[in-house]
Amino acid sequence: MISIKSEREIELLKIAGNIVYQTHQYLKPHLKPGVTTKELDILAEKFIRQSGATPSFKGYGGFPGSICVSINDEVVHGIPGRRKLKNGDLVSIDIGACYQGYHGDSAWSYVVGTPSSEKAYLLEHTEKALFAGLAKVKAGVHLGDVSHAIEEYATSHHLGVVKELVGHGVGTNLHEEPEVPNYGKAGSGPILKDGMVIAIEPMLNLGVADIYELEDDWTIITADGKPSAHFEHTIVVRCDGYQILTGEE
């Protein structure tokens, strides 16, 4: 069942989402060659806790980190560790924060130093695919319209659409109904209603859409070794559109 959030709940979700946004802003200057993904994880956890929240991902399903840090051909769920960032790396950082029982969730992709033209292209059009989906959001619209818009934008720019991983509802649980695929048929799926809170998160590959999981049981990588990007906002559906919860206040 897809829940409708009260205005009080939406305010708490907005605070959680803003903590996620501020954590992203805090980490950006630290994305430099030589920094380890574990150092980023420690910085993020400290910032989230100092902001009055807890890291949503830490211990979630046994995940060992506070954030997910996925590099180059890693699509999602990269475990922070001793790996050092290098110039030109594409780094996707997924952050969740729980404030008074309510979650914020947002992923963003960055390049360390100078990006290649291919990685710059992937970043630009994965972010634009997110906003192509968001542009369809308002009460009364089928969820499939959002999914279809993302897929249409991605395929028109020759990017592989990861189908095994999807967006989701957000609330007192990190993952709630509905699932939000990045592909689909316009006019299909649940009808969006005012007060629904969902995370929309295209994961697009520079090459094929195929992916597989590493032996750590978490990290997902592209089948052809080409880079992947990930952009995600948590939003609340409104009668006239949507409100981003994982952005500036």
Describe the structure.
The model has no long low-confidence stretch (mean pLDDT 97). It contains four helices and 15 strands. The chain is an alpha+beta fold and 249 residues long. The strands form four sheets. Strands 8-7-9-14-15 form a five-stranded antiparallel beta sheet. Strands 1, 2, 4 and 5 form a four-stranded antiparallel beta sheet that branches. The chain has a three-stranded antiparallel beta sheet with strand order 3-12-11, with no helix packed on it. The protein has helices spanning 7-27, 37-50, 117-134, 143-156, and strands spanning 54-55, 67-71, 74-76, 90-99, 102-111, 160-161, 167-169, 176-180, 197-200, 203-205, 211-213, 220-222, 228-230, 233-238, 241-244.
Main attributes?
27% strand; alpha+beta; five-stranded antiparallel sheet; 249 residues; four-stranded antiparallel sheet; 27% helix; 4 helices
